[in-house]
Amino acid sequence: MISVNDFRTGLTIEVDGDIFTVLDFQHVKPGKGAAFVRSKLKNLRNGNTVERTFRAGEDVGRAHVENRAMQYLYASGQEHTFMDNETYDQITLPSSQLEWELNFLKENMTINIVSYQGEILGINLPNSVELKVVETEPGIKGNTATGASKNAKLETGLNVQVPLFINENDVLLISTSDGKYISRA
């Protein structure tokens, strides 16, 4: 058990039988009434984000999740196969469990598989990934006064807004949290 007073970003907890990670929290001490902790939690089983308020000092269960480094091997229909880098065991996850992550996965990429008591909850991507531009229109000279941008399609199928100087076959650094362009790699 852990007190809600000890919340920190990234902490995994168990509430009402579900596993959550703490995205944000705020200790509130109103002038009248008892103190409480307002939190923003992400459900690791279904990906939903919820806001929840706890009384100050309330205890919640601590969830010990395991992260294992695995390599993304291939996609076969609606299933994706990963291999453990140490034991060479393979696991398969459905596309429905990896909807957002598929925008950034490339073959042979190493990621972390998150599991809780043997149940696979999903994957953790690095903060940014390098992806190649496969399709974009050429930039028009003289169109840069306002920091204009254009659409680019990346090798995984993700569409992002990029500056006008980006061309096809450029390798870009893309944020995995929001899917936005960071810089050229």
TrEMBL record:
One of its GO terms (cellular component) is cytosol. Pathway: Protein biosynthesis; polypeptide chain elongation. This is Elongation factor P. InterPro entries: Elong-fact-P_C, NA-bd_OB-fold, Rib_uL2_dom2, Transl_elong_fac_P/YeiP, Transl_elong_KOW-like, Transl_elong_P/YeiP_cen, Transl_elongation_fac_P, Translation_prot_SH3-like_sf. One of its GO terms (molecular function) is translation elongation factor activity. Belongs to the elongation factor P family. Involved in peptide bond synthesis. Stimulates efficient translation and peptide-bond synthesis on native or reconstituted 70S ribosomes in vitro. Probably functions indirectly by altering the affinity of the ribosome for aminoacyl-tRNA, thus increasing their reactivity as acceptors for peptidyl transferase. The gene is efp. Gene3D superfamilies: 2.30.30.30, Nucleic acid-binding proteins. Residues 67-121 form the Translation elongation factor P/YeiP central domain.
